[in-house]
Design brief:
The chain is of the alpha/beta class. 42% of the residues lie in helices and 14% in strands.
Length: 325
């Protein structure tokens, strides 16, 4: 049994902790607030990951550090990521723990074919630049023998624990479909373009594998992901599962989009617009063949997401649900 320090108590951090505990490992789940998700076999720790000394102390007996954090501000990655990434890299070097970084597809930039691990990193914005730099820095340290590093990359994700405001798919397609909306309005993209959606628990599964399998080190890996589905197809899939009419997926009217651009967050999405304008497909064959993994069945993953999404409403409508006997 090995010890793993998972940084970040969000959905990905929790999914990683669950996957590691299921494999018999000891896990410490660290976050700034010391959030306790009540995962059996998991210890919790309040930790500021920007503090390299404190992070090093927390990782002293860890076999691996899983970086599943993100800076609090989506619009200030250029300010917030460099010191955070440097602190985590320092802790990995000082302790000898394997560094597993949970990343995304921003660093590939605009693509015209399915993305593999060999697709060149050609970011087209600040967020992609930050992700590319983090991987290059970690890989350089790995190549120099200072650390052992690996990275996983997921597409836009969905699933339990990834609710409104976290998952694009759940916020703009699944949520409106469950609410019985006739029209689901998306802020950007082609509702009929094929798009890869990664299931959140599958991210945790791959993170757990990369933490413990030396074949993973020195390379990036794509999370096993189901075949692409357009947002219109997802809306229809939700309708099949719930037995209610599917909403029509449409873009927000141009006037509303223009008004929304007063928000720095909305403007911060500009560099990712290409991901939704045309086909955006993730090829995860390498991780599947190397580690014997598969993505969760699409229908099962979507059904689990729907159940998780409606549970809060059911509890609100029936206060007795979940009450102590």
């Amino acid at each position: 049994m090995s010890h793993h320090l998972v940084l970040g108590a969000g959905g990905i951090g929790r999914a990683t902790a669950i996957a590691l505990v299921r494999r018999g490992h000891r896990v410490t789940l660290a976050s700034r607030r010391g959030t306790d998700p009540a995962i059996p076999g998991t210890a919790v720790l309040a930790l500021d990951a920007y503090d390299a000394a404190a992070l090093t102390a927390a990782a002293r007996d860890a076999d691996a550090i899983v970086n599943a954090v993100n800076p609090a501000s989506y619009v200030h990655w250029d300010r917030d990521w460099p010191p955070l990434a440097a602190s985590i890299l320092t802790a990995a070097e000082r302790t000898g723990a394997v560094l597993v970084t949970v990343s995304n597809l921003y660093a590939y930039g605009r693509v015209s074919a399915p993305m593999t691990e060999e697709t060149p990193l050609r970011p087209n914005g600040i967020k992609g630049e930050m992700r590319a730099r983090m991987w290059r820095d970690a890989l350089a340290a790995h190549s120099a023998g200072r650390i052992r590093a690996t990275e996983l990359r997921a597409s836009d994700y969905f699933g339990p624990e990834a609710g409104t405001g976290i998952s694009y798919l759940q916020t703009y397609v699944v949520g409106p479909a469950l609410a019985g909306k006739r029209i689901a309005r998306i802020p950007m993209g082609d509702p009929h373009a094929p798009h890869s959606w990664t299931y959140l628990p599958d991210i945790g599964e791959l993170a757990a594998v990369l933490s413990t399998d030396e074949r993973a080190w020195g390379q990036a890996w794509h999370v096993p992901t189901a075949q692409p589905r357009s947002m219109a197809q997802v809306a229809a899939d939700v309708a099949v599962i719930t037995g209610q009419p599917a909403p029509v997926v449409k873009r927000l009217p141009a006037a509303l989009l223009l008004a929304a651009r007063v928000s720095p967050l909305v403007r911060g999405l500009d560099e990712t617009k290409h991901q939704f304008k045309g086909p955006f497909v993730l090829d995860s064959a390498l991780a599947q063949s190397t580690f014997g993994l598969t993505s969760t069945n699409w229908e099962d993953a979507l059904a689990a997401t729907i159940r998780w999404s409606v549970e809060p409403r059911q509890r609100a409508a029936r206060p007795d649900i979940g009450a102590a006997a």
